[in-house]
């Protein structure tokens, strides 16, 4: 919406633009803040703050929330808060058999979500468009208030050409153009394609209390595939060509099975959910396996703990490289709970450098879908707060 300020803003307007974002960020980070307080934090003049906040109110992004109760006598300033229904984001989590699509309001609260099963990814953009419009209509939102669409994908992403280069999970063609097609249908809406594990890591960093103060984080995401989200200095680290975090393709066995990527013994071949299920053919679902793991069935315990050991070796490799403040385990593997986590920690401590042994290894605590939640927050930050 800030792009509506002018096609090619002059430098003066650019300063205004960043001031607008700064003011919005202060309002967003508070639970009610006065204009005077914003002026004192930003050192901008009260007149400037007044005009910036009026602009945000006129755009429907901020509301006045009444008076703050001040014990001492004197002025009782009107507080400002983000208008949560003022704008919204669409967040998509691409998966092996379809996608999760969710609508989040301006405060990143979930409005609606659903899973869309796909038999082919050939017309991905068409399906995303249909379900986006359908959800907007059902939630009685206006398309004009759609600020951004984030697509979380398991796979390698070519940012310049806005496409998924390859994925060992998604049955998608290399020349996929779904981002461009979405842009054609939603001109003016910011559309971003981001690695799903990065978004999960971002959600953890932004929404989980114990992790909020941690600036350097490694998030291990284990489900059909295995990926990692890396947070450095509070931001998603994407690497030179956006290819950082391919944790699943760290080799833990040079004589191991050949991976879809061509290498041998990649973690993804020995430690994803499929690798566990392959060893336990008598069970149909991961839920069933998790139940038996709780009950310590020998065959299940052996298979799942072997997985934990592989993951611990992978974590040790990554920790030696990145020296993060904490490691988070997320994804479908969370179903095995603290018993599984403790196995990872036990194996990790056996091999970690002495200085690294005490790095906390934690289970993800994000509620709901971390990919779509992280996507909504990522878009909010990208559009309104940076
Ligand atoms: Zn591989």
Task: Describe the protein's topology.
Layout: H1 11-29, E1 33-34, H2 35-42, H3 46-58, E2 62-67, E3 78-82, E4 88-95, E5 98-105, E6 110-117, H4 124-138, E7 146-153, E8 156-158, E9 163-166, H5 178-185, E10 190-195, H6 196-207, E11 217-222, E12 226-232, E13 235-236, H7 267-270, H8 273-279, H9 286-294, H10 298-322, E14 326-330, H11 337-351, E15 361-363, H12 370-384
Bound molecules: zinc ion.
Provide a brief overview of the structure:
The protein is built from twelve helices and 15 strands. With about 375 residues, the protein is of the alpha/beta class. Mean pLDDT is about 90; it is low at about 1-15.
What does this structure look like?
- The protein has 386 residues and is of the alpha/beta class.
- It folds into 3 domains: 2-82, Winged helix-like DNA-binding domain superfamily/Winged helix DNA-binding domain (Arc Repressor Mutant, subunit A), CATH 1.10.10.10; 86-198 and 370-384, ATPase, nucleotide binding domain (Nucleotidyltransferase, domain 5, 2-Layer Sandwich); 209-363, 2-Layer Sandwich (Nucleotidyltransferase, domain 5), CATH 3.30.420.40.
- The chain has helices spanning 11-29, 35-42, 46-58, 124-138, 178-185, 196-207, 267-270, 273-279, 286-294, 298-322, 337-351, 370-384, and strands at residues 33-34, 62-67, 78-82, 88-95, 98-105, 110-117, 146-153, 156-158, 163-166, 190-195, 217-222, 226-232, 235-236, 326-330, 361-363.
- The strands form 4 sheets. Strands 6-5-4-7-10 form a 5-stranded mixed β-sheet, with helices on both faces. A 5-stranded mixed β-sheet has the order 13-12-11-14-15.
- The longest helix is centred in the last third of the chain and has 25 residues, at 298-322.
- The two termini are 14 Å apart.
- The relative contact order is 0.12.
- Zinc ion binds at residues 249, 259, 261, 263, 266, 268.
């Amino acid at each position: 919406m800030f792009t509506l300020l002018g096609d090619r803003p002059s430098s003066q307007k650019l300063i205004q633009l960043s001031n607008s974002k700064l003011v919005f960020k202060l309002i967003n980070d508070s639970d009610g803040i006065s204009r005077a307080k914003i002026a004192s934090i930003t050192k901008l003049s009260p007149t400037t703050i007044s005009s910036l906040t009026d602009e945000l109110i006129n755009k429907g992004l901020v509301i006045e929330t009444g008076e703050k109760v001040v014990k001492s006598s004197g002025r009782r300033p009107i507080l400002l808060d983000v208008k949560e229904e003022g704008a919204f984001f669409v967040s998509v989590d691409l998966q092996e058999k379809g996608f999760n699509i969710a609508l989040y309001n301006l405060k990143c609260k979930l409005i609606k979500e659903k899973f869309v099963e796909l038999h082919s990814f050939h017309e991905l953009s068409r399906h995303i468009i249909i379900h986006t419009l359908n959800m907007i209509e059902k939630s009685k939102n206006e398309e004009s208030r759609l600020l951004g669409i984030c697509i979380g994908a398991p796979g390698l992403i070519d940012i310049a050409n806005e496409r998924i280069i390859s994925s060992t999970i998604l049955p998608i063609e290399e020349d996929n153009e779904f981002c461009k097609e979405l842009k054609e249908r939603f001109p003016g809406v910011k559309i971003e394609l981001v690695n799903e594990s990065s978004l999960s890591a971002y959600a953890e960093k932004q929404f989980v209390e114990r992790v909020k103060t941690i600036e350097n984080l490694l998030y291990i995401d284990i489900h059909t595939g295995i990926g990692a989200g890396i947070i450095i200095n509070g931001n998603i680290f994407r690497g030179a060509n956006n290819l950082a975090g391919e944790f699943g393709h760290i080799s833990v066995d040079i004589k191991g099975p050949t991976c879809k990527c061509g290498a041998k013994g990649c973690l993804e071949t020995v430690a994803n959910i499929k690798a566990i299920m392959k060893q336990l053919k008598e069970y149909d679902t991961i839920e069933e396996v998790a139940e038996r793991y709780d009950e310590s069935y020998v065959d299940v315990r052996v298979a799942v703990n072997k997985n934990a050991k592989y993951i611990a070796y992978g974590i040790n490799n990554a920790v030696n490289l990145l020296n993060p403040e904490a490691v988070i385990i997320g994804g479908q593997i969370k179903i095995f709970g603290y018993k599984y986590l403790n196995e990872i920690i036990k194996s990790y401590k056996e091999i970690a450098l002495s200085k690294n042994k005490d790095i906390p290894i934690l289970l993800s605590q994000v509620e709901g879908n971390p990919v779509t939640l992280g996507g909504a927050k990522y878009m909010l930050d990208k559009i309104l707060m940076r």
